[in-house]
Structures are given as structure tokens and as C-alpha cells.
């Protein structure tokens, strides 16, 4: 009986521990931090041994296989010791796929992957497929394989999850786009981050598909100098695509052309508006077309889909000012799409833990759209230095309530306050979700 050690006691780790036990492994879970009570109770229920607040090295180093949760970097001392022993250290995705015969659709990218994953699942589920959703979203893929019987899974995959795959190959892979993000995990080398994203296709065969953004420079450059066996299906909002998807020249319809079979969708019939969402919709529509989902079901599903929370999410209109929660925007490219979607003068709340941001790509948009900036972070120097000569009004805030109140002071009726931080949240908040919820709470207080 093989020894499985699971590092990390969150959703991914606990799900893997349960699946491992079901598959006959001797399982031990270890977390250097405190495990949440809900996960502890789950482990106790399944009688899975665990520890938190530190690692017992001899137990971990005696494993036959180690599953590392995506939040743990390779530079962590315990991981370094495992790698020196040439111990297999894999991700939940790799471990789970080895114990499942279900089809997977893997979706990665710097931005748009959550929305694309949710929309794809929505289209496929409404189209009659027995389909689960997991990866970086919802219940863990491992737990669902252990407890459910889905024939297909739509998986949102981060670069961290892809770093830990060896043989995993999705039948359909999507790279929504690539822009600099998480460079602190990749030695601040953009090419290493790009390579991590493309691991999604490294094991694909001629029978598989890779769907990608033909407008994205990093993606196009990688494909021009590397090969994949998968069938390439591009999408674009800038040019006509012969076998893939594109936006009509008048911008009024999306055309999906797969194997000379057209599906034309009027953009006004898509619930998610904005150019970035047209791209997300194209990727999902290509998948639906490949899997032969009924056309009438696809059309009705596009109208009813609700987007991801904290992603250009309208909160409230308070005294004529629109408040938009885009807390999920943890990199500059996400902010680009958010600012591009703004139709009125905007007060931009930005800041947090900088991951190596280059703000130059949004300078012109900031000049055009932003009337004032509120910096929300422990260290705001980089934002202030960069935009000091671009925007006249810049203020600092150390709490969300302070940031929202300051933004309200800058905004006038008919304008917008946008939380789109471009940074990680961990200096002042538990997560981007916590940051978004605090923003919404603070906005609701304005209405009282």
C-alpha cells in the first residue's frame, strides 16, 4: 500500500486526501499553518491522520507520492527537501486525473478563466451533459471524483496547478490570454510564467483541442516557436478566423466556424457585455460547438448566465454614482479590461501586494478614463510614483471604509467608482473575495 502525503489542508488538499483514501493509499495530511475547523472536521469524519502548525519531516519524507497544494511555492523548505530526494511532488489535478476516466476541459489564462469556466459549465449543463466544475473554483476536482459520477469536468487551472502535472492532458484546453502575473513565483521571468500556462497542452494528442486568443501577443509568440500535437482553434475580436471564432466587422455578432459549420450569435443576446467578455464567450461557444450542444440551448443559456462575483460586478448606484466591484482584478491586464469597459469618468481604487506590475500598458486608458486614484495598500509608492504625473488627484487609504469614503468625495453624479486593484490582497485582506465583500459592505453603508 502506497503512502500518500498531502501538503496543505484547504479545499484541494482535503479533497485529495479523501480520494487517496478511497483509492487505497495510506494518507497523511500536513499543513504548516492552522487548518480551518470545517476541514478538520471533514478529516476527522474520514479518519484521515493530519497535523497543522508545522511539518513532521520524517513522515513527509517517507512518502511514496506527495500532493502539494497550489499555494505552496517550490521554494518552501519542505518542498526543497522532497525534490532533493527526487520524490514525485504533484498537483491535485495530476493525482485526480490518474484516478478518473471522465473527460476534462481545462481552462487557464491570466484573466477570464473563472468567467469562461463558469460560462462553459453553464452551457454544457443546460445542454444536457452530466458535467462538474472544479479546479480553482468550487468543490475540489478530487472530492468530486471521490464522491460523484460526472462524465465530464470543466476545470479552472492556475499556473500553480499546471506546474504540478506530469501526464495530465485535457481533451479540450483553453488559454484565455497571457499577461504578466504571479511573476514573484517565477523568478520575475515572464517567459517562465508563459511556459507554465502552456503546460496545459504538453500531453495533448492529435485528438485533443487547444483553444486560444489569437490577439494575445505572448500566446502567438509561444505558438510560433513551439509545437503542440493538439488541434488549434483560435478566436479573435480583431480579424476573421477561418476555423475558430471571431467578432463581425460591425461588432454586432460573434461567428463560430468549426469544420465549416457556422453558429452566429448576436452580441446583444449575450448577458455579459464588453470586449473581454466576448472573448470569454467565444472560448465557451467553441467548446459547446465541439461537444455538439444543441444550438437553441446555447442561445438561451447565453442570455441567462450570471458572471463571476467580484469581476466587474455592479454593486449599487448611490446618489448617481455607480460602484463597481472588480476585486478579482489582481493584475494589470485585468484592470485594462475593466477600465476599457468604463463609460463615465472613473475614480479608481487600486493597490495591494504588487507582483511585479508594469503599469505602462494602461497609462493611456488611465489618462482617458480616470479622474482620481485612491491607493489602498500598505505600500503605495509604486502606484503614486507612476501615476503622479498622469492623474491630478491621488489619495491614500489604509482601510476599505476609508477608501470608499475618499472615493465618494472625488466622485460626482453620473460618474463611477471602480475597485480594480491590479494587486494581490494579502497586505490588508484575507483574499480578493474578502476585499470585494468589504468593498460592497462599505458601499452599502453609504446608502444608509
UniProtKB/TrEMBL annotation:
Residue ranges constituting the Mur ligase C-terminal domain according to the UniProt record: 310-423
Gene Ontology biological process terms, A to Z: cell division; regulation of cell shape; tetrahydrofolylpolyglutamate biosynthetic process
Domain Mur ligase central, first and last residues per copy: 107-288
Record-linked Pfam families: Mur_ligase_C, Mur_ligase_M, MurD_N
Keyword ATP-binding recorded: yes
Subcellular location: Cytoplasm
PANTHER family registered for this protein in UniProt: UDP-N-ACETYLMURAMOYLALANINE--D-GLUTAMATE LIGASE (PTHR43692)
Name assigned to this protein: Uncharacterized protein
Lineage: Eukaryota, Fungi, Dikarya, Ascomycota, Pezizomycotina
